[in-house]
Amino acid sequence: MTSKEELAAKATTAAASGDFEKALAHMKTLVDLGEGLTKREIMLLFRCHLAYFHIQRSQLESIRSVAQKCFNHKFRGELADSYKEQKILLRDECFCMVNFLNKKLCKVVDDMEVLVTAKEIVGNCYWYLQSISDMIDRHSYGIYALEAYRDGFILAENLSPTHAIRLSFVLNYSQYLEENTQFTDVAESIVRDLYTKATKIASKKNSPPLENNAQAFLHRLKSSIESFDLKNSLTVDVFDSLK
């Protein structure tokens, strides 16, 4: 029987090579051993799931985009079948992860980094389920996603504004809020607020240098602000033209 250490090592190797599907499979086997997880193992599980989740969503979008432009009915039908299969696989993965986090992990772990990342994953899963469901379920999943993100946002305030996990969380949360247009102003507000706090800390003379991933997330926050500024200027231009 494979030990925890061996499974974690295999998952780490697979993740390093970009094979997050295999990495996630190793981590699920590790979880099923029922021996409990260290913080390092939990964060590795989260990293594998987040990467796998985003890759699968991108692939689904690519399949749908190609299918919409395809005039070959047979090939279009094959793409539709592939899209349906992958959508079901990702849906089942979301249910599995939400169940694990809500029922098994979040009730026994009090580490802030773990809890914030867990809430981000739960929010992501419900966001995806919201996007593929019918109108009734879509509303319910939207509420669940918003609750998870709001809980995570409150927890994330216990981390430094320059902490990579907090920066990543706010980026993801703001993207969710933007997709739900009634919350666009909130998305802009939380991005600007965190960027201001983070850059203020980072600019201090005795402040330690940011980690590479934190630096990358901070750059993405800046890009989001520039995008908000552009949208705001276009809106002003439209109103001015109507005067």
Labels describing this entry:
single chain; 243 residues; mainly alpha; 9 helices; 82% helix; globular; disordered C terminus
> What kind of sheet is the major sheet?
none
How many beta-strand elements? 0
Order of helices and strands: HHHHHHHHH
General shape:
globular
Distance between the termini: 74 Å
Radius of gyration: 20 Å
Helix content: over 70%
Average pLDDT metric:
85
Instruction: Tell me the number of helical segments per DSSP (H or I, 4 or more residues long).
Output: 9
Structural class, by secondary structure, is mainly alpha
Low-confidence regions: 238-243
Strand content: under 5%
Write the layout of secondary structure elements.
Elements: H1 4-16, H2 20-32, H3 39-69, H4 73-105, H5 112-132, H6 135-156, H7 164-179, H8 184-202, H9 212-242
